Amino acid sequence: MPRRIRLFLDICIFTGLIAGAIISVFALLGSVVPILDVINHFQLVIMALGLFALAMSFVWPSTLKALQRFGRMLVLFILCCSALILGPEYLHRQSFFNADAAQSGSSARSPLKLMSFNIYMGTHDKKALANTIISANPDVAALQEYAPKRFRNQPDLKRAYPFQARCQSWRICTLAIYSKHKLTDIKSYDIGTKNQKNPLHGKVLAATVHPANARPFRLYSVHLAWPLPLAEKQGQLAKLSRIIDDEKTKWPLQVVAGDFNSTGWAFRVDAFAEKAGLERRDHFVPTFPSPNSRIKHVRIPAFLSLDHILTSSSIGAASVERFSAPIGDHWPIMTTLYVPH
Prior knowledge:
By secondary structure, the chain is an alpha+beta fold. Helices cover 37% and strands 22% of the residues. It has 7 helices and 13 strands.
């Protein structure tokens, strides 16, 4: 390769690394500047690109060794910034494995398996949906992008989950709750505005679950807006927080599950959880895209953790795990809740 071309490529690479370092600093500022928090949705991509760049820094035939060394320092800086975001998320996930063993032996709590799954609005396979839920065998399943009329008549699911909540039309909400336990006080909420582009977003379906040997809890199946426009996303989170706060007096035990369209390692979900008096139970669980999804007809690994389970602090929880399904563009997730008696 001619020296001039290599020099030009070196300058382009170095410029890109400077831009990457600036973006990484902006991502850290996302905790105080909400618009910058959008960058954190792509931290897994940034980390992967940073590791690739670090490896290439040892084999790329740079024309300027000093520039190569400084470029390597920039890559390490970018990786350190990503580690500050992703590291606590990963470590928090490890702590749940020990907590699960401690809670499972408690006689003051009853275990309840909870599943959350965005099944994708384009799904028409009723049998695959039924098989996915029945084989996973949760006690309660919160579904998103669920077409209510399309999946209404399913005798297998009705036998396994006799208590069901859904909206009458997809225009009201595309949410559902399937439960082995009695459901009461079913209510839907529209927390979106006319400014949002996707009519499926900004919806909440709430129901009170009555486990046989534990206290009832209020479950909210949610599907929220994308991170942008920012005002829409912040408005929906604020409205959801008010709904939870208003109902807390009647139902002090609360669980929120669904598609937040915000990653767990971004700052907004935890800020919402703190404001609502909840704790996020999923950590470092990428759920989008699933193997069934195609982005520009290319299958890529999951790099966004869009689906979350949040609970009141008095409800214990095991680690949240994802599992495979033949449908849906998200991975379904499931955990075991430990509900007080």
